[in-house]
């Protein structure tokens, strides 16, 4: 059967770009829009936040129909005259993308290209639901594809590197292309609000400055500090190849190429000046580079000077043990660094080796933490990431992580993540080999990082999250003799009672819907809170309508 791609009549190109992510900053998608517009094409940017995909629901089973009929109809109306639709997705948004694509194919007969991490690692799965798959970086790919389609050459796409496409029933896999080394060649992300739309309270609305402000204020990190933040990246790639992370896939995909690349300081600062001029309510910058401290020292010091002089807002960065030095950290604090997020991940040398983080062992973790603690009076408590619930962990491995935590200098906060064996990562390959991946839909696609297994060590880990739990008490509770008693069958009934009590308190005290409603000024909408507790997902679980918001 002939697909929609070959039924379409090509002419001047107009491209719709859709994101299902709750955070509407969408650095990659907005960069694609900027690239296409710079080349003379029209774009429509559509943000359709699927909060279930980000874990903002107390679901027991994810619905494959993430969006209401009203939301889908609104999307179809906005893109009725486009020639190509691009959808970005990660693994948790696979069902979102499928629903959107089905509606587009059925109603409009317009071809759809998928891109992002999941299509890159699972192109053979994804190509059965769409017309094209972009593997890896897509700026050059989408430009070449649009030019080809505009020229009526939809059956001659063999020379577009990193593209997977269909000709009739045949799936054609083009070879992987080269990474752009000069990131300054790309324009800054498109925040023009020109033909931009966002799903708000189940209705697709044109993005106004006020709506943009509300959503930026509601961003994950912005909400943490009560600020209106702008998220961007100063580089691409990561100097590490941790087995649980997608960078392990991309490093292998682009082997023998320089994977870690940085934009120039001037390019970054100009972007921030532009976006702050156009959106003066922005008072916080969130840099989501995988390892901000991987920049060479002279470059980082230059950035700190320019940022302090020309921007000056508080900012947030990600760092990794071993890349953080006191000279780098002090320069960034002086420039306005508010908080750092650093992955400590695990305290067991055995698990660190499995994660390919042996070079970032406990000694480097503690050394980096000591550097961070020296500036505690000028910054917010650092966020330290921890991974747990691995099938490979022994009780000794779990206790090693707790011992490491008990040695961390205060203050700090822990962000704890129950492991998910994401497709494309080296850890997924290991887990699948060992028979630990059986039902990917339930165990990966629909599972969220907070869905933990209950155990004595996990309870201690959660008690330690705030950084306020007394370290002497934690050390006492992980003493070998105490652990032996606490995990014995004799105390199992008491443990079950404590577990049920803790689960109730956790649902009541820390529901993401409450945090989100508070950020949007709609906490009084108790019905929405109840809807989240019932597991309502997608467009039906939005915030209040703009006219009702404060």
Task: Quickly describe the structure.
This protein has 550 residues and is an alpha/beta fold. It is built from 23 helices and 17 strands. The N and C termini lie far apart (52 Å).
Layout of strands and helices, then pairs:
Layout (H helix, E strand, L loop, with lengths): L13 E6 L7 H12 L3 E6 L21 H10 L5 E5 L5 H15 L3 E4 L1 H5 L1 H4 L5 E3 L4 H12 L12 E5 L2 E4 L22 E5 L2 E4 L2 H9 L2 H6 L3 E4 L2 E2 L10 H7 L7 E2 L2 H14 L5 E4 L9 H14 L4 E5 L6 H10 L1 E9 L3 H6 L7 H12 L9 E6 L6 H13 L5 E6 L7 H8 L6 H6 L10 H8 L7 H7 L2 H7 L5 H18 L2 H9 L5 H8 L17
Parallel strand pairs: 1-2, 1-3, 2-8, 3-4, 4-5, 10-13, 13-14, 14-15, 15-16, 16-17
Antiparallel strand pairs: 5-6, 6-7, 8-9, 11-12
Helix pairs in contact: 10-11, 11-12, 15-18, 15-19
